[in-house]
Amino acid sequence: MNNNSMNRSEMPVGLVMALSQNESALNYFSRLPSSQQQRIINDVHSIESKEEMKQYVDNLVSPSSTTNSQALEDITRQMTGVNPPNVT
Questions:
Q1: Where along the chain do its domains lie?
Q2: Can you tell me the distance from the alpha carbon of 46 to that of 75, in angstroms, rounded to the nearest whole number?
């Protein structure tokens, strides 16, 4: 099976593991609309290490002066070098 045949909407194991270790992030993720959940799932496919995944998930709910959505965009930009699509 090649990577192109993988269903991109499947929850990556690393994301599941990281969410299971952060109850606040898990609760946040589970309350998101499916479109925003899918955006996170798509974003994490480029994460290559357990530490990066943990940082990404921890930052979903970390206190900051920006909204969670803005923080998520910032993290995505830092880790991938790509601007995430705008979701309203």
A1: 11-80
A2: 12
pTM of the model: 0.62
Burial class for 66, CB neighbours closer than 10 Å (0-12, 13-18, 19+): exposed
What distance in Å separates the CA atoms of residue 74 and residue 82, rounded to the nearest whole number?
10
- Tokens describing residue 73: 């965009």
Contact 11, 42 (CB under 8 A): no
Residue 14 Cα distances to 8, 70, 74, 79, angstroms: 14, 22, 20, 15
> Which two three-digit tokens encode residue 34?
């499916």
Token pair of 3 as six digits:
């990577």
pLDDT in tens, the chain (88 residues): 344 334 445 899 999 999 999 999 999 999 999 999 999 999 999 999 999 999 999 988 875 544 556 666 666 666 666 665 554 4
